[in-house]
Amino acid sequence: ELDPSEVGFSFGPNPATDRIEIRTDAGFPIDQVSMYDLNGRLVLKHIEVNENQFGFQVGHLTPGMYVLKAEFEEGILNEKILVH
Fold first, then answer.
1. Cβ-based neighbours of 27, under 8 Å, separated by 6 or more
2. What is the per-residue pLDDT across 14-30, written as a single tens digit (0 to 9) for each?
3. Residue 6 DSSP code
4. Cα separation of 83 and 80, whole Å?
5. What pairs with residue 83 in β-bridges?
6. φ, ψ of residue 5 in degrees (nearest 5)
7. Using omega within 30 degrees of 0 as the cis cutoff, is the peptide bond preceding 15 cis?
8. pTM of full prediction above 0.90
9. Where are the alpha helices (DSSP H) in 1-84?
10. Which of 43, 52, 54, 72 has its CA 20 to 30 A from that of 19?
């Protein structure tokens, strides 16, 4: 698993209400973004992102804690995020 500082990873807001923005350093485009509930169920997935900045809607999700999974050529990052 990658350390967020390795790719300049940041995301927010956390907690989120309707939208999340993800950013990385220029040399580390995001390949894919997924979100899972705490039971491990996939609730959201964006493939072939290939960008250093990516935003997506989360307002349709049931309020609660989720795991945000960002995949890169260099590896995977997992971060907890609260949606309310």
1. none
2. 999 999 999 999 999 99
3. H
4. 10
5. 16, 64
6. -70, -20
7. yes
8. yes
9. 4-7
10. 72
